[in-house]
Write a sequence for this structure.
């Protein structure tokens, strides 16, 4: 299984307390890596198309992730408030899911922002995603302003910082 470590960490985090901001992943101030993932139809999507032009929120996500499901209301509320200013993107990890399974899941549980697929794990590696529910917030210059994982992240506060509210 590809990226078995990711699945193991996600399951471990599912029963452990949530990880706080800046305890995982890329360091604040790091220039965001530019990688190519796929849309759910298999077409290449360059994450660099928005990075460095506007604030961006990336969530490393999976249909089977209980922390992602628990984080969903906060993300939807943050999207309702900041979606006109911040580009939201969910990146489906390539562990125990496919574009077809993601599409089936989204048919019953839609998200108000795009879901892409990281089939080869390029984004997982570049963004040092230790688990699903991992969020990276980038400022408009393309630098990391926040990272965190788990269901208890304060997404709105992280975004208020990059949009100046």
């Amino acid at each position: 299984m590809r990226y078995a470590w990711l699945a193991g960490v996600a399951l471990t985090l599912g029963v452990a307390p949530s990880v706080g901001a800046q305890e995982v992943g890329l360091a604040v101030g790091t220039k965001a890596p530019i990688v190519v993932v796929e849309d759910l139809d298999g077409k290449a999507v360059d994450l660099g198309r928005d990075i460095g032009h506007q604030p961006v929120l990336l969530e490393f996500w999976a249909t089977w992730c209980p922390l992602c499901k628990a984080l969903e209301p906060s993300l939807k509320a943050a999207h309702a408030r900041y979606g006109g200013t911040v580009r939201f993107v969910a990146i489906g990890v390539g562990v125990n899911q496919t574009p077809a399974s993601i599409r089936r899941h989204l048919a019953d549980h839609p998200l108000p922002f795009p879901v892409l697929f990281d089939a080869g794990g390029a984004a997982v590696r570049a963004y040092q995603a230790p688990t699903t529910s991992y969020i990276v917030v980038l400022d408009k210059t393309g630098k990391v302003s926040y990272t965190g994982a788990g269901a208890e992240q304060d997404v709105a506060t992280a975004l208020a910082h990059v949009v100046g509210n």
Summary: Confidence is low (pLDDT under 50) at residues 1-20. Residues 33 and 126 are 6 Å apart (CA to CA). The radius of gyration is 14 Å.
